[in-house]
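Sequence and structure are no longer studied apart. To make this concrete, we show below a single chain and its fold as tokens.
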Amino acid sequence: MHTIFSVAALTGASMLSLSFMQAHAAGLSDGSKPFDQYHWVTTHNSYEKINQNLKEMPQQLSDGVRGFMLDLYTDHKQKGFNRIIVCHKSLACYGPWGNHLKNEFIPFLKANPAEVVTLFLESYVTRDDLQQVFDSIPELADYSFDPDNFANEQWPTLDEMARSNNRLILLTDRSELEGNYAVGNKAVKVLYDQDWLVQNRWDTLGAVATSLLAFHDFSCPTRWSDVPLNTRTVARETGKRWNRLFLMNQFHTATSTTFDSGSFDNNLTYLRHRTDNCGVTPNFIGINNYQNGDTLAYTQALTQGGIYLWEGHGADRTQDTVCVIPNGTQTLLLPEMGCENDEAQSLSLSGIAKGTRITVFDSPHASTDDDYATVDVKRDIGISEHVIVHEFERTLETDDYRVNYFKYNGLNGKVSRVEIQVP
């Protein structure tokens, strides 16, 4: 039996259907891979909804965001639960961190027992400040991720993290804050980010959002000079031999606009350019305006495979990527796919199962009285492979796939409907 997903009359401003978005909220269908083989949307200054499509963090969670960048400051007038506040440079504050933990993140984790959430903490607080907050929310220790609970050779799988309830990863930018915080007879674990991650610099795109591509720098220098992006394993001090995770920063530091986010920063072509320049596939992609552009679809495709449509012949990487349609998309929520009409001339396959059929139509109504082509996948294609279907206007067979083209007046650059049948 096949499951069919159709994208009809694709446009650059296209948004996914409500049912498709709701499906993503159920989570990933495959939790058997180590955590470092998954990829997540991460929001920059997650608490500032003006930069995140006017969405609060609970809505971001519902929409599939799983990484959150938070700035923590001490409120010296408060103790306990209210000791730490979430602020942007101490100028604009968004309430106690304890409130976000207790009333937003913990309820989500409780309601979604297979999900993992990661918090990236820019910390202007002390160990005592953290201890006060953790003591006031003892339930937090029930969800805290502790690497010591798992084997040394590789990251635990999502399923293992779920079974042990180690599902809230706390990463700080200050080494003096790392370690265990005793809460009753349990503990909350805080990890030092430079021991576990690689990151690119956060400021190469420039401070101010702009509609001019020339002012965007998609180079990928490392954030930490002593931790190059090609550093493979976590720090020796961790006692683990796990792969480092990669947080790829892709945002402007001062302002953001939905146009800039959708056209450049979160656009698949420029996400791919940055990834290529980094030479490392990101586990987390930090962005503004997460509902604009292709980041949700891209991270899902990196995790579960996907079908990439290309503007040029032969999946020409010097030209734009039209969009990516994630494998198994019927289970995931994405706010838009960014697939333009009448642009795709070729496609590439990553992580696609044998028996998958892709049909591309000139007609938005799937009329077989106009041009269409079928692509039948003949073998399981690995997640790290990029198997290219060079064009749609040619019937041929390779070891990887068979293309049948039904000709009338041309199909390359005229695709307006895509159907995917998954075995």
Summary: The chain has nine helices and 21 strands. The first strand starts at residue 3 and ends at 8. The longest helix spans residues 97-111. Residues 30-293 form a domain with the TIM Barrel fold (CATH 3.20.20.190).
